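Hi R.,

Here's the input for the zinc ion complex you asked about:
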Amino acid sequence: MILHNFYFKNNHIRNNQYMQIVTVLLFMLASFFLNGCGGKDYLTIAVNGSDKIIKVYSISGGIGDAWLLETTDEFFLIDAASSGTEDDILKQMKKLGDKKLKLIIISHAHFDHYGSAAALRRKTGAKIAIHKDDAETMAKGETPLKHVRGIGGNLGKFFLSVGEKIWKHEKTEADILLTDGTDLTKYGLNAKVMHTPGHTAGSITVVVGDNAAFCADLFSTRGWTRSQNLYADNWDDVAESFKKIQAIDVDTFYPGHGTPISKEKLLKLKVSKD
Ligand SMILES: [Zn+2]
Ligand SMILES: [Zn+2]
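And here is the predicted structure with zinc ion in place:
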């Protein structure tokens, strides 16, 4: 938990850290009411139907989550959660064994997805990859929420604007720029990138092996299962991209927040029109 990290990293807490804690608490409270409580997961996914498997772990970073993927030889991350989560991620990897973190794939440039990426790169030497259309935002350490819907969206935007004044997110330069169709096999992961813009201009879905798709914030299962209905760069693109992921021929769909769902469940979700 972020709060824990603040406490144990410093014996004396400076004033602005109190403010950070208050902000995090407010944000977590808001996201709890909006999304409910996220759970931890351990799953395995087969690659190409062979006996070669990739193990998937969910690491909760309070506001954001990270998916840790373990192959036979290496670790990969899909998202890096909020800043302050790096030690939890490193601890989880250490528990699993002595493998190298090869690549951190950021699904989109929102702080709850790239927050710990730069710290992890410093500690492990892993490269950071993001779609080219979100790279500049991440490099500035920003989290733009262009269009919001409903009380939830407005509350989130309010907390973010207050929070960003006192809780700065690390400016994170990308090492690798992704585009639609980028094949990640060359980095050691049997996966392909699909450009699924809307929530942000450079949002991606990562299709791993032949039975898993990581769709980031196109849907959420925290609290209840729903398609993205709070924040968008472009709502029409959200609807288009949602149709795109519904057409992916895999069994399991992983959200940016929450636990995975089956294709059957994903097909039942509608994109909100209001
Ligand atoms: Zn997001
Ligand atoms: Zn998110």
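One thing worth noting: The two ends are 35 Å apart (CA to CA).

Cheers,
M.
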